[in-house]
């Protein structure tokens, strides 16, 4: 019996040194307690810095994403603001008496979104329109006096502003989805059809929302403006082609 006892004693000593617990009758419990203490010490020394690094990395990623969106947001905000500012200015092209310069500027907003979609993808493009609309709404609420001072009294009914604003948001969202689905070797397909379908959605939502139930013949206006957005979709392929080398897509989009 002395041999096994001696062997047990040896293994007990080895276990004691492995666990860092003094020898005694509670070697097993001591090993467990030591492992818990070591685990806590490890988590305190290593796990928390890793968690902190992960949080800092996520914060850095959010800030980096926002930094990449600064220029796209400024571009879209400028175009949308110009469209509103010139809504009371007659169109330089003799199309229809009701057509104004603001409506002719509006299709340019699709180009701004297409460039963001090409460079960063659909997620960034959607963030672009959400942040842009949020900034516009905030400015309209808190800076209304400045707008009135700059442009004079409201030159469009609130129903028209709300109708076209909601329609434009829907049209931009649809154009992002179409662009993302069609991007590929035929580079012109994505911007062309995204603008075409986006323009149709814009007209189909904006004119009923703005004029349904009024004496205005909004159906003829809707069809006329749909023709304008369709022609603009074709023409906007040219500046898109010009800007393509300046906004190469990030990795993951196959160069398209």
Q: What does this entry look like structurally?
A:
With 256 residues, this protein is an all-alpha fold. It has two domains: 2-48, no CATH class; 60-246, Arp2/3 complex 21 kDa subunit ARPC3 (Orthogonal Bundle), CATH 1.10.1760. The protein has helices spanning 2-19, 27-85, 101-105, 108-120, 122-142, 144-151, 158-182, 189-211, 218-235, 237-243. α4 (108-120) packs parallel to α7 (158-182) and α7 runs antiparallel to α8 (189-211). It is globular and about 65 Å long. Residues 1-43 have low confidence and may be disordered.
Salient structural properties:
single chain; 256 residues; mainly alpha; Arp2/3 complex 21 kDa subunit ARPC3; 10 helices; 77% helix
SSE map:
Blueprint lengths: L1 H18 L7 H59 L15 H5 L2 H13 L1 H21 L1 H8 L6 H25 L6 H23 L6 H18 L1 H7 L13
Helix pairs in contact: 1-2, 2-4, 2-5, 4-5, 4-7, 5-7, 7-8, 8-9
The helix/strand series, from N terminus to C terminus, equals HHHHHHHHHH
Distance between the termini: 80 Å
The number of domains is 2
Uncertain segments of ≥5 residues (pLDDT<50)?
1-43
Strand content: under 5%
Please describe the biggest sheet, giving its number of strands, its sense, and whether it closes into a barrel. none
Which structural class do you get from the secondary structure elements? Answer: mainly alpha
Mean pLDDT: 81
The number of distinct helices, counting runs of at least 4 residues, comes to 10
Shape, please?
A: globular
> What's the total count of β strands?
0
User: Which CATH class of the largest domain is shown?
Assistant: Mainly Alpha
Tell me roughly what share of residues is in helical segments.
over 70%
């Amino acid at each position: 019996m002395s041999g096994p006892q001696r062997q047990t004693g040896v293994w007990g000593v080895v276990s004691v040194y492995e666990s860092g617990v003094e020898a005694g009758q509670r070697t097993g419990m001591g090993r467990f307690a030591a492992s818990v203490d070591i685990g806590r010490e490890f988590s305190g020394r290593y796990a928390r810095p890793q968690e902190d690094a992960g949080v800092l990395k996520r914060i850095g990623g959010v800030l980096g994403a926002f930094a990449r969106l600064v220029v796209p947001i400024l571009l879209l905000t400028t175009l949308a603001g110009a469209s509103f500012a010139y809504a009371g200015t007659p169109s330089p092209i003799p199309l229809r008496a009701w057509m104004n310069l603001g409506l002719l500027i509006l299709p340019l907003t699709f180009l701004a979104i297409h460039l963001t979609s090409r460079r960063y993808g659909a997620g960034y493009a959607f963030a672009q329109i959400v942040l842009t609309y949020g900034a516009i709404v905030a400015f309209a609420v808190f800076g209304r006096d400045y707008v009135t001072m700059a442009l004079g009294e409201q030159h469009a009914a609130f129903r028209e502003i709300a109708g076209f604003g909601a329609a434009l948001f829907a049209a931009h969202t649809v154009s992002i989805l179409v662009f993302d689905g069609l991007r590929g070797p035929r580079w012109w397909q994505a911007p062309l059809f995204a603008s075409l379908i986006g323009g149709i959605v814009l007209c189909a939502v904006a004119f009923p929302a703005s004029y349904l139930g009024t004496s205005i013949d909004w159906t003829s206006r809707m069809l006329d403006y749909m023709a304008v957005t369709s022609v603009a979709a074709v023409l906007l392929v040219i500046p898109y082609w010009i800007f393509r080398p300046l906004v190469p897509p990030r990795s993951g989009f196959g160069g398209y």
